[in-house]
Design brief:
The chain has 367 residues and is of the alpha/beta class. Helix content is 28%, strand content 17%. It has 2 domains: 280 residues, Rossmann fold; 69 residues, Orthogonal Bundle (Helicase, Ruva Protein, domain 3).
Length: 367
């Protein structure tokens, strides 16, 4: 069996914090009074602990009644040089296992033709879509990213009826369902970046403790997907969450892109001491509620990247340099939109970028 690369995941061990993160799936935004702004130690908040231990004990392993799906996928590699870079890929395939009537679902592309009744000794062949589309429309379906040992999964299954978990590690994916007999838990052994979100029910909610080094591609995947989640609750590096929700005066390409696709807000801050093993930085909950239609066009988002080519320089300089427009013409555009000629890219509100982009490109075409 081929060795797999480590994902470098850090597991959250505090049940009170896990419960609060899970509850964001049904809360309206991140300002619920029952949730504190920061979790700094192991003592659970009084309003959410309910007498439970602050450390989560995993349930005893037992016979599973849930389904595990196995997909071909490449292994991500993290060299540690850039926590936000798109990962490299190794070109090896995980062998597909045989289908078991009680616990295993083969690769969806291999599941063709009629199924047989498992009670008669045949194979119960079901496609990935067959499994995922059985969630009742009036109940929330939770998509958990990287369940690992099942610490967050345990909390989610107490709050929501159906959980679909995408786990990259083959052994963890095979063992996780055994911890939750009788629960409506579907574990799919796959790489989340390769997983087809169109197979999920509409209006699902995504939630997960995201590995820092694949945060950017995961955000991009869910915000630009055809089948977007109604809400996404991601525990990410604190700096990333703060940048994603930044307002006028502190905008970055990340904040403008994120807020063009979704309503973004922050949840609780989680100190690094609450993870096993402890990471080097603190984390924060990032809550996204995607819009059906983005507020900015793809062309405008490309223009924003050009405008931020030198974030500390004036906007007029960046536009003139990137689009090869004279400074005089650039200043005329800014004046027509009531934008200060000394403004920097971070000072421009989200709503102003569409008109700014259109005027700049119109001038470029006419020159």
């Amino acid at each position: 069996m081929k060795n797999k690369k480590s994902l470098g995941q850090h597991w959250l061990k505090d049940r009170a914090v896990l419960t609060q993160i899970a509850k964001y799936a049904t809360l309206d935004g991140a300002t619920d009074e029952d949730l504190p702004n920061s979790i700094s130690g192991l003592s659970p908040p009084a309003k959410t602990a309910s007498g439970e231990s602050d450390k989560l004990s995993l349930p005893r392993r037992s016979q599973t009644v849930t389904t595990v799906a196995t997909e071909n996928r490449a292994s991500p590699r993290n060299d540690g040089s850039d926590p936000h870079s798109v990962r490299e890929r190794d070109n090896f395939q995980i062998p597909l296992g045989d289908f078991s009537k009680s616990s295993t679902l083969r690769h969806p592309q291999s599941l063709r033709g009629p199924s047989e009744d498992p009670r008669k000794g045949g194979r119960a062949e079901r496609s990935q879509s067959d499994v995922l589309e059985k969630s009742p429309e009036n109940l929330p379906t939770i998509l958990e990213i990287g369940p690992g040992l099942g610490t967050l999964t345990s909390v989610l299954l107490k709050l929501y009826k159906k959980v679909i978990a995408i786990e990259f590690d083959e052994n963890l994916a095979q063992n996780l369902p055994k911890s939750f007999p009788g629960k409506d838990l579907t574990v799919i052994n796959a790489d989340i970046l390769d997983f087809d979100l169109d197979t999920l029910p509409k209006n699902y909610t995504a939630i997960g403790n995201i590995p820092y080094y694949i945060t950017s591609p995961i955000l991009r995947k869910f915000l630009t997907a055809k089948n977007k989640p109604q809400k996404a609750i991601f525990l990410v590096q604190k700096e990333v969450a703060d940048r994603a929700i930044a307002t006028t005066g502190k905008h970055t390409v990340l904040s403008l892109t994120t807020q063009a696709y979704a309503k973004a807000s922050a949840g609780i801050e989680v100190k690094k001491s609450l993870f096993i093993p402890p990471p080097k930085v603190d984390s924060k909950v990032l809550i996204l509620e995607p819009y059906k239609t983005p507020k900015l066009s793809a062309k405008t988002l490309d223009f924003i990247k050009l405008a931020f080519s030198s974030p500390r320089k004036k906007l007029a300089h960046n536009i003139a340099t990137s689009l090869h427009i004279s400074r005089e013409k650039t200043l005329e555009i800014l004046k027509s939109l009531n934008i200060d000629e000394n403004a920097r890219p971070a000072d421009i509100p989200l709503e102003a970028w569409q008109n700014l982009s259109e005027k700049a490109h119109t001038l470029t075409r006419s020159s």
